[in-house]
Amino acid sequence: MAYTCLFVFLKKTKAIDAIKHVLVSKWKWAGHIQRVKDERWSYIVTNWYPRDSKRRRGRPLRMWSDDITQIAGKTWARAAMDRKSWLLMEEAFTAKCGPYNKY
């Protein structure tokens, strides 16, 4: 019930859902960075895989791209090259990783 009330409130006030906005921005940024032609720092940092780092016992390694990998698969960097299919997956990303869906 609270979930529906929130959307009615957002529709009436024309406010944006901040978490959905963040997720859409993350998805678009990931696609943009993968389509960059040269080796910029943003590309290098996004694709960096910490092979030698360790976390405390009991805490899993978590990377920025883990949320994207859940939707687009392990080859998400290759999938981002096709803009049309990448934009179609954006809605699935915001729906699955949204604040009201537990994964």
Describe this protein with a few key phrases.
103 residues; mainly alpha; 6 helices; 59% helix; Jg22845 protein
Note down, in words, how this protein is organized.
The chain has a domain of 72 residues. It is globular and about 50 Å long. The longest helix is centred in the N-terminal third of the chain and has 18 residues. Helix 2 runs antiparallel to helix 6. The protein is an all-alpha fold. Helix content is 59%, strand content 0%. The protein contains six helices and no strands. This is Jg22845 protein.
Number of helices: 6
Shape: globular
In terms of quaternary structure, the protein is single chain
What average pLDDT do the residues reach? 78
Structural class: mainly alpha
Q: Please indicate the percent range of residues in DSSP E strands (runs of 2 or more).
A: under 5%
Order of helices and strands: HHHHHH
What gap, in angstroms, lies between the N and C termini?
Answer: 20 Å
Spans of at least 5 consecutive residues with low confidence: none
Largest sheet report: none
The amount of helix comes to 55-70%
Rg, alpha carbons: 16 Å
Strand tally is 0
Protein name: Jg22845 protein
Secondary-structure blueprint:
Blueprint: H1 2-13, H2 18-35, H3 41-46, H4 66-72, H5 76-79, H6 83-96
Helix pairs in contact: 2-6, 4-6
